[in-house]
Each structure stands twice: as structure tokens, then as C-alpha cells.
Amino acid sequence: MLYxxxxxxxxxxxxxxxxxxxxxLDFDANLLQIGALVRQPIPQIDATATVAGRxxxxxxxxxxxxxxxxxxxxxxxxxxxxxxARDGWTVFAFGANDELDTVAPTADPNDPxxxxxxxxxxxxxxxxxxxxxxxxxxxxxxxxxxGYDKTYSxxxxxACSSPSRPFV
Length: 168
Fold this sequence. Notes:
By secondary structure, the protein is mainly beta. The chain is built from 1 helix and 8 strands.
């Protein structure tokens, strides 16, 4: 596929549908983040659910070096696959939030432990709905994607900040 006119990278990939018989539990905890992934069949609706989330707290490590900055992030993914390999559907929702906090503009310059305020917040959410059908050797996919993006920046100029805007 050819993409042009973008200033950043684009990743175009396809994921496999979850197997109906697959159970999966995966948990992760380390110095910077905690996370989990769970996959579970739901026989009542003939589907498989996959849920994952992560919360990062590198600000705790940064606090050992300085009290002038903090960083945190979280993200989530939810996927529900139903139907058969020939005729099926997928509901996929995912999103993330990254936040950088620096010394608040109203902080007293002589305060040894100044309050922090958000300097940069990047947030997005997506909902991806798919329906696929196979007719003999022809596979068709119908897809609708909805999203929401928000960028907040306390940059000296407004060139880096943009208002919240949904897109389709």
C-alpha cells in the first residue's frame, strides 16, 4: 500500500483473529510499569474476548533524580472476535494517554518541592468495527473506524497545541 503526505511513520498491518479455544493470562510488573493481557472464549455469544492494559510510572524513578518533572502513561486494548474464519466480525477498541508534568507556572521559584502541572498530554481512543465475508475465492472486508485525539501542550507558542477533535 502506498502512503504519502505524512510527516510521521505509518504502520499498516493485519492481525489474526483469536482462536475460539485459546485461554491466555499474562501479567507483567517491573520498575517502570504494570500490565496484563487476558484472552477468554465466550461461548454464549460464540466469540473470544482479548483485553489488555498497561500503566507506566517512570515518574517514580525520575523522582529519585529530580522533583522538577514527572512522566506517566497508560494504554488499553479490547478485542472481541466472533463468527467463523469464513464469515466473522471483530470489535476492536484501543487507546492511550501520555503525560509529562513539569513545575507549575504559578509555583514559587524558591519552593524546594514545587508543585507540578501538566506540560504535555497526548491522548487517543479508537473504535474499529470489522465484518468479513468469504464467497468462494473472494474475501470482502467491511470496516468502520472512529477515533478521538487530544493534544495539550503548555508550549510558549500555540503551534504545538491543537484542540480536541474527533475524526472518522
